Amino acid sequence: MIKIDPLDFDSALFGYPVGKADIEFSSSEKEILEASKSFQLVYLFSGAPLDFQSKQIIPTGETVQFSKSLEGSSEEQKEVSVLAQSPTKDHLSLAFQSGKFSRFKTDQRLTNGEFEKLYSIWLHKEYQEGKVFLINENQGLISVSGSGNNAQIGLFAVDKKFRGQGLGRKLLEHLEFQLSQKGIKKLTVKTQRANSVAVNFYVKNGFREVGSRFVCHFWDRE
């Protein structure tokens, strides 16, 4: 039996019922559609790619998780500073650029500004917690969340006009330095398999892949 968990935050933000579910390979399409009928949008997570006939369910990609030990050396970067003012349009632009491959961006059925709402809230929340770092004011940003010995990269982007200058590496190195100073031992990050630039960047900078999940979206057009 498939259980759809309601997502109160997403539902309030998007303005319609949203849920999520973990789907087993043995789950039938009929069961999924029946369980999802009370929702307009459902995130369906699985450990392997699933094939559906219904046009209401479409694959939105594979999310990959990477992990890195912070026991190695890192350096503070003088060009990097904490975002100390309410995010501007330039900062929002960076947040949106970080989500270029997000399933909320690539699912063309989401036409009510879901992607922009979600990433704007995300940026403002981490700014309020003092967890957004900028390089050269607005050329790139990286944010972080988590507690205890673990931290997770959230938003991470270098403006398209300034790429290829090593700014992403400097942002990452500065973040690793700050976390190490606080005694945090591990840094994780999630990205999309389709984002080959990000995948290669993390591997090049010492991260190792530790898991992945395939995601589909159920969408009720009515």
From TrEMBL:
<feature type="domain" description="N-acetyltransferase">
    <location>
        <begin position="90"/>
        <end position="222"/>
    </location>
</feature>
<keyword id="KW-0012">Acyltransferase</keyword>
<dbReference type="InterPro" id="IPR000182">
    <property type="entry name" value="GNAT_dom"/>
</dbReference>
<protein>
    <submittedName>
        <fullName>GNAT family N-acetyltransferase</fullName>
        <ecNumber>2.3.1.-</ecNumber>
    </submittedName>
</protein>
<dbReference type="Pfam" id="PF13673">
    <property type="entry name" value="Acetyltransf_10"/>
</dbReference>
<keyword id="KW-0808">Transferase</keyword>
<dbReference type="InterPro" id="IPR016181">
    <property type="entry name" value="Acyl_CoA_acyltransferase"/>
</dbReference>
<dbReference type="GO" id="GO:0016746">
    <property type="term" value="F:acyltransferase activity"/>
</dbReference>
<dbReference type="InterPro" id="IPR050680">
    <property type="entry name" value="YpeA/RimI_acetyltransf"/>
</dbReference>
